[in-house]
Amino acid sequence: MTTDTPSDDRSSPPRWHPLGAVERRVLGVLIEKAKTTPENYPLSLNSIRTGCNQKSNRAPLMQLEEDPVDEALENLRNTGAVMQIQGEGRVDKYRHLAYEWLGVEKVELAVMAELLLRGAQTVGELRGRAARMEPIKDLTELQPTLDSLHAKGLVIYLTPPGRGSIVTHALYLDREMEKVRREAVGEPASAGGEATVGGWARATASPQTPPAPTEKETRGGTHTPDTSTVADELHRLQEELAEVKREFLAARAEFESTARDLRRELDELNRQLGN
Q: How far, in Å, CA of 217 to CA of 120, rounded?
């Protein structure tokens, strides 16, 4: 099993640069799965594709085939962000080199993974989501990490810093970054499957064209699903269920932490008022 820890070799400078949308999704999936399901890491091409198409904790939703995922992996290998290894049963598997490629530490990488998987979001949302990968107790604990990533040029504030500020990563291509900045200040999103909610973009799923019926189905025959396809779908659903559970637990922990803070503030106020 490969552990998700920074390499001891920290001598070379970061090598990161902007990536295409599929490359960002692939890299985000590799980082996420290394942290949340290390027993299944490194990942095969099919597992990466399943993670890219996952419906939970993803924005925008994607429906990728193997070819674009394979091409993205090749591009990431060439740029030094991913490496290919020989897995069990001679199946090629992949692991990320994001610690060295981005020049970050463990909590910083968890924050970057969430931004790669979801894009622009408020710092409160980011804390809750990144906490499923690395412990981040509250916004006060998140802030030094954001400050460090901002200083490294990896995180961009789209609205003024503060409790409700919106942040994103700096790995967008130039034309995409311009659109992200416009949406953050409330300008209408252009056509392409995205909607603006609360002054910034929330990506929505693009409508999928249903597959054409097979010749057998056209004749009214019974179609028997491929067992490997059923197994892949079951695995995907299990992962999504586990993801929803992790998000629920993270949200509950954030609520309990906020409630404790409010109770302390109320107790202090009562003490000052002599109650």
A: 43
Q: What architecture is domain 117-203? A: Orthogonal Bundle (1.10)
Pick the CATH number of 21-101 from 3.40.50.11900, 1.10.8.60, 1.10.10.10, 3.40.50.150: 1.10.10.10
pLDDT band at 235 (very low <50, low <70, confident <90, very high): low
pTM for the model: 0.69
Over range 29-55, report the average pLDDT: 97
Lowest mean pLDDT among 64-78, 81-95, 137-151, 167-181: 81-95
Residue 36 has pLDDT above 80, yes or no: yes
Q: Give Cα separations from 40 to 5, 85, 178 (angstroms).
A: 16, 14, 37
pLDDT tens for residues 86-104?
867 789 999 999 999 999 9
